């Protein structure tokens, strides 16, 4: 290669690296973050997210072990996500796509010992069936999206699922994993970051 092409290639690579650096700095400072976890852990887990799907986990990686960890959950209504945070290391260890049908709370709710395979919701003449539920204080639940509404099957699209009041609806795989959460795990519901 002649000298001019080498020089042009060097300038191109340098400009590309500068662009990547500026983009990362901008993303790091412009994005919204929860103060309970480090910014880096939140950025890393956002890059591992899949598109919402009722039959798949939210992230591409395997589920972390939550049995012996100090875990807290933050449900964000605006991006429709539940952040699973290790409170000892202040790191987001998993992000769950969710349909959050709870009002924002000033104080955290808590995960109860109550959990099961199937739950029925009856509201007037409306009847709904969900699976893999996990009890939350004040009569709330984390569960899969409704599978049957008034004895009719419901389409499996996480963005178009019927809302059930007092619930956080997550995919089937995420709901099964969340059932392993220890009792008294705090859950804070916020409007947004």
Automatic annotation (TrEMBL):
Swiss-Prot/TrEMBL keywords: Membrane, Transmembrane, Transmembrane helix
TM region(s), chain numbering: 7-26
Name used for this protein in its record: Uncharacterized protein
Species this protein is from: Limosilactobacillus albertensis
